[in-house]
Amino acid sequence: MNPKVKNALEWGYCIIIAIVISLLVKNFVGTPTIVKQRSMYPTLKPDERLILNRLAVTFHKDIKRGDIITFEAPSVPKIDAKDADMSNPVAVYNNEPKGWIKRFIYYGLEWGKITYIKRVIALPGEHIEIKDNKVFINGNEYHESYLNPSVVTTDLGGEFTDLIVPKGYVFAMGDNRPESTDCRSFGCVPISKIEGIVAFRFWPLNKWGNPDKK
Q1: Which of 30, 115, 153, 185 could form a disulfide with 78 if both were Cys (CB 3.0 to 4.6 A apart)?
Q2: What's the CATH code of the domain at 89?
Q3: Quick one: pLDDT band at residue 1, thresholds 50, 70, 90?
Q4: Of 6, 39, 192, 207, which residue is the catalytic one?
Q5: Looking at 64, 118, 145, 207, which residue is catalytic?
Q6: pLDDT value at position 214?
Q7: Number of domains in the chain
Q8: 209 — alpha (psi -120 to 50), left (phi > 0) or beta?
Q9: Residue 198 is inside which H or E element, if any?
């Protein structure tokens, strides 16, 4: 074989292997992400950089209450009262790409994919109720020390404020309750749609570490 062709092929193999490894790490181990919106303020602010732990999702480890998660945005960000099925209070996902190429672009490269970042409040089988500007889980008031003292939790005009979280789902909300589009509006999120758990914040440097650490 011509040495130049052989050299080019070797470089090509190396590049392909590097791309495959980087995609595997990104999708199944961990990846950086940037906060874009204010729905998790003051815990997280726009332009802060985070590392997502995807190992927990990859190995199907239990999601815990209080975890800050990222997940694929539902197809319908707000379900109206006439369309809300309270016997199955779950988010709608009907934008599944067709064909393996489109699926790879959407799920592998995550091009065109919208992601939300919220906090897990209620777990499968739990009864969550939002009333009197408070959150109740299984009838007990849930105290959230990470919230801004001035923040109260209202229904935000959403339909999903008194429900049993179905098996395989979680109920999540943003810490900035007045400015967060979350499960109150679109229903419970499938655990299968969770992309990662926030491991730590690495930017800005003076806030390095656990976002919930005061």
Answers
A1: 185
A2: 2.10.109.10
A3: low
A4: 39
A5: 118
A6: 59
A7: 1
A8: left
A9: strand 194-203
